[in-house]
Design a protein that fits this description.
The chain has 18 helices and 15 strands. By secondary structure, it is an alpha/beta fold. Helix 7 runs antiparallel to helix 11. The protein starts with a strand and ends with a helix.
Length: 555
Amino acid sequence: MLKSLSIRNVVLIDKLDLDFQSGFSVLSGETGAGKSILLDSVGLLLGRRAETGMIRNGCDKLTVIGTFELKDKQSGLKQICATYDLDFDDEIVIKRTLDVDGKSKIFFNGEPITLKFLKEISGYLAEIHGQFDNQGLLNSATHRAVLDGYGAYDDDLTEMADAFAQYQQANSAYKAAQKQYDEAQKDEENLRHWVDELEKLQPQSNETVELEEKRRQMMNAEKILENLGAADKALNGTSQSVRESLRQAQAAVARVNAVLNDKFAGLFEVLDTALINVEEAEEEIAAASNEVSLNANDLDNIEERLFKLKSVARKHQVMPEELPHLWQEMSEKLAHFEQGEAQLQKLQKEQKEAWNKYVVLAKKVSQERKATALLLDGKIMAELPDLKMEKARFMTQIMPKPENMWNENGLDDVCFMVSTNPGQACGALSKIASGGELARFMLAIKVNLAQTSQVETMVFDEVDTGIGGATAQAVGEKLAKLGRKVQVLVVTHSPQVAAQSEHHFKVEKKTVDNVTTTSLRQLNDDEKREEIVRMLSGEQITDEARAAAKVLIGA
């Protein structure tokens, strides 16, 4: 509930600090005293538009602070706050400022927040029912949520919404697979041809590089063999080969070592190593010569292979070295296509199963809505005679939506319908009822919804408009009844309504030195009685008015 309200520099209010209690409170005062300013201030705390014209003349900025006491930590509110990394205990303090430059700041328990976030949580803090704007029950778009809130099938609503989300996921997967399959089907003939071509070509990793090296070698074969022959001749082509000379030198050193007790053993080893290296060199030269081919057919085969590899690579706009990867990729794509039909059928089956599950749950919710609507209609109809609307009718219309409009909220459109005169067909609440009738219908609805409402504070702006006498008395009684379930704040001109209140605040306007200021104070019992007398008789106080006020308060 709204525990306290602090206002600074809002229109006619320079400084005002108020504490509110639970139950039914009224705010009264002469026309123009500034009652609407208080409602506008509360509206700022709930995310309504802030305009610089609300700043008191001569001031730089306005400030409004509201403390909301929460009996139980609302799970929905807690969840929203968690997404913004905010938390609260038993109270939430909302502070909002606006300066003359139009810059606004909003705080949640001292932490800065956005206007978007404030609007998200406002529905958990309070409701203002004033000029029947589109955010209230006159907007049929809210009726489904109102009916569902009154019903006791929250788990079914959650299960239905989850089922629809699962269907959407399955449907998206099926449509994506279908699109992929259709695209692959268009390229199937080309894909098969390309895979077959690569299958026959059998490209290998680094094959092009190796072939280029062989090709270069074969094109220079004669020069290579000539130089390898010269190297061999240098080692073996003289009258005495290098190997033979090394052996002779080694034998001579061995004889010296025999005399000098292996003094030059190291030299012998060096010659031995040289001899081994020469022998290895001879073998490498011979092997290299054998590798070099002068066969023209071999060169033609290599060049033909290179041409094929490069030609296929150009066709697919890749480098020849990428052909093995392309081959694998196309083979997998073809295999996926060949398996695609079975996968598509599997996904389609999952889609249908998810849809059927959703429809079963949605139909169950639809039946629960119809049962709840009958219960709610009966409850509201029972309230209408007390509000002097014995001949009025209220009914909840539940209409099936087109299948393509079914969503996480189910299959139904919900609209509250009324008839105010016998024989008159029911029509939309916003189009049939007059101002006074609207207020009473709204009150009858709210009295019944209060027990399931997530809001602990309801503010009514002149709910008694267009009514008086016994009807106003009945409205006051209903507001008092509603006040036993939630905190009710009512701006009223009706003495019959004010008389039913538990707490009475009077709005007063004073002008001193051409400066007008609005103030608000809570009345004691005697002051309340005098205020009701004023509301009954106006400026001329009469004994009859005092007697009537006493009757009203005692009624």
